[in-house]
Amino acid sequence: MAENNCLTLKIITPNRVFYEGEAEMVELNTSEGEIGVLPGHLPMTVIVKPGVLTITEPEGEKTAALHAGFVEILPEQVTILAEIIEWPGEIDAARAEAAMERAQGRIQEHASDTDLARAETALLRAMARIQVIK
After folding, report:
1. What is the DSSP string of the chain?
2. Which of 34, 37, 7 is nearest to 20 (CA)?
3. Phi then psi for 9, rounded to 5 degrees?
4. What is the pLDDT of residues 58-104, one digit of tens each?
């Protein structure tokens, strides 16, 4: 059980347990906007939107690029079921820059609504990767 000023955070991907530990706060983008979760938060389930995940631990902050998944928030625990999440050291900067340029080009072309939505999501993912590594 987490201490009163911390909550238990577990991040699971299809391939591994990405993170498991104590956090003072967790910040992430959701389909409803950016949220910060502190111990005692009201229970809820949200959909992840691509962006930077910030984990505030007693020792300091860690960031990761979180691209897709679901989050279950309980007063003492946060569980993230992530399709894709990357630590800064796992990101190829040149590849992220190239992906951002491709997505921006596709947005300017915006052939159809579906293509535009995909391009916008790709752009958000690339921007999250770039922001995490800087």
Report:
1. ---TT-EEEEEE-SS-EEEEEEESEEEEEETTEEEEE-TTPPPEEEEB-SEEEEEEETTEEEEEEEEEEEEEEETTEEEEEEEEEE-GGG--HHHHHHHHHHHHHHHHH--SHHHHHHHHHHHHHHHHHHHHH-
2. 7
3. -115, 130
4. 999 999 999 999 999 999 999 999 999 999 999 888 888 888 888 88
> How far apart, in whole angstroms, are the C-alpha atoms of residue 134 and residue 120?
21
Q: Cβ atoms within 10 A of the Cβ of 25, count?
A: 19
* Confidence (pTM): 0.80
Q: To the nearest 10°, the Cα dihedral for 54, 41, 70, 48? A: -50
Which residues make beta-bridge pairs with 18? none
